[in-house]
UniProtKB/TrEMBL annotation:
It is an enzyme of class 2 (transferase). Signal peptide: none annotated. Keywords: Acyltransferase, Lipoyl, Transferase. It comes from Yanshouia hominis. Residues 2-77 form the Lipoyl-binding domain. PROSITE patterns: BIOTINYL_LIPOYL, PSBD. Its EC number is 2.3.1.-. Its cofactor is (R)-lipoate. Belongs to the 2-oxoacid dehydrogenase family. Residues 121-158 form the Peripheral subunit-binding (PSBD) domain. This is Dihydrolipoamide acetyltransferase component of pyruvate dehydrogenase complex.
């Protein structure tokens, strides 16, 4: 009997994977332990080994396609053995056409999804389709056995029209007890519409700009493209962070003279050890020291509970393909400058080549994002949840400043700290930024 090859689940948060490369072709002999395929998740790239001997009979998910975890993506068996076609849950990007439901089980007459203790029974692929489309499973008519929601049910489901509100309008409507159902004819409800209802005015008509934004025109040859798993993960995480954290960004200038002198004085010595010393390494060391002095910044916040971490696991945003990933260097507060430099460069190399381990991706307590190499002088980085702050590092620019009553030119650099105001107020954020500045402008204080 043929052995099913499943899409592996390589981490608690992994829900799907993209096949980067099949190491074997259909018809090739396979031995247990042979590299069978490479899979990309939203964070990592892994090579997967075969767990059975035989022949690769059929590939169900070709290179470049995405499949949910634990779904069948190929079969290994005896030469000439017959295997089934791709299951409905294998090809995520392009599901097969949905067959019409039998007349006796037409959607209008089909029973609602069977619930067991509040849980809606559905096939894995149906759940994924419903999640992707934003459909509530409990409202979908089920045609599967024992009231199970099938993929065809999700495809056939037509949701009731829903009122679209801007975030501010939704919050105002909830606070003022406004019934938004009266706005069904309006394309998107804005703050002014809700306020108009409070004052017994008619809802404002949608502005033309809002209509065009909701349905952008398409020129000849234009078509939407599915983004990578990494970009989808970034979109989800950043959207969540934007809605979770009441954030404020604080900017503080730093005179980088001492930092440049420190790098220049150690550059040759580090080079002899095979280490390329960068400003990021010095910044990481100073930031790690400051975080040990501000435990509420080196913390995370969940369910109205704060966790102050004993170690500084310092994340660094690294560009990879069409997005960013944030590996972190563990126990950074206990490392010397050379150890930070070695560890950081190894971490960046692993991130860009897809060799990061799950441990290298999880457990971060604070993040640094540097846009200095791109000439950026100010920006507002978004917090990497569930952390409480992120430090943006800007370009070093020769700038005229006043020192002891004289105008002199100094290499100045802005630090931009975005902090979660639920825990870190303006005073704490300012003191933390000032402490990093003191260490960068006087590196000898690191020896104290």
């Amino acid at each position: 009997m043929a052995t099913e090859v499943l899409m592996p689940k390589l981490g608690l948060t992994m829900t799907e994977g993209t096949i980067l490369e099949w190491k074997k072709k259909e018809g090739d002999p396979v031995r247990k332990g042979d590299l069978l395929f490479s899979v990309e998740t939203d964070k990592l790239t892994n090579d997967v080994e075969a767990d059975a001997d035989g022949t690769l009979l059929k590939i169900l998910v070709p290179e470049g396609e995405t499949s949910g975890c634990k779904t069948v993506i190929a079969y290994i068996g005896a030469p000439g053995e017959t295997v089934g076609a791709a299951p409905a849950s294998a090809a995520v990007p392009a599901p097969a056409p949905v067959p019409a439901a039998p007349a006796a089980l037409a959607p209008s007459a089909a029973p609602k999804a069977h619930r067991e203790g509040g849980y809606v029974t559905a096939t894995p692929y149906a759940k994924k389709l419903a999640h992707d489309k934003g459909f509530p499973l409990g409202e979908i008519s089920a045609t599967g056995p024992r009231g199970m929601v099938m993929a065809r049910d999700v495809e056939a489901f037509t949701p009731a029209p829903r009122v679209k509100l801007s975030p501010m309008a939704a919050r105002l409507a909830e606070e003022m007890g406004v019934d938004v159902s009266v706005f069904e004819s309006v394309n998107r409800i804005m703050k002014a519409d809700v306020l108009g209802m409070v004052h017994h005015e008619e809802p404002a008509a949608p502005a033309p700009a809002a209509v065009s934004a909701a349905a952008p025109p398409e020129c000849a040859g234009e078509k939407p493209e599915k983004v990578s798993a990494l970009r989808r993960s970034i979109a989800a995480n950043m959207s969540a962070s934007w809605s979770i954290s009441p954030r404020v960004t604080y900017t503080h200038p730093v005179d980088a003279t001492a930092m440049k002198q420190l790098r220049a004085s150690l550059k040759d010595e580090f080079k002899e050890q095979g280490i390329k010393l960068t400003y990021n390494h010095i910044l990481m060391m100073c930031t790690a020291r400051a975080l040990t002095e501000f435990p509420d910044v080196n913390a995370s916040f969940r369910d109205n509970m704060i966790t102050r971490h004993h170690h500084v696991n310092l994340g660094l945003a690294v560009a990879k393909g069409d997005g960013l990933i944030v590996p972190n260097l563990k126990n950074c507060e206990a490392l010397g400058l050379a150890e930070i430099a070695k560890g950081t460069e190894a971490m960046i190399e692993a991130a860009r080549t897809g060799k990061l381990t799950m441990d290298g991706m999880t457990g971060g307590t604070f993040t640094i994002s540097s846009l200095g190499p791109y000439g950026i002088t100010s920006f507002s980085p978004i917090i990497n949840q569930p952390e409480l702050a992120i430090l943006g590092v800007c370009d070093i620019v020769d700038t005229p400043v006043v020192r002891e009553g004289q105008v002199v030119v100094r290499p100045m650099m802005n630090l931009c700290l975005t902090a979660d105001h639920r825990v870190i107020d303006g005073v704490m954020a300012s003191r933390f930024l000032r402490r990093i500045t003191e260490l960068l402008e006087n590196p000898c204080r690191l020896l104290a």
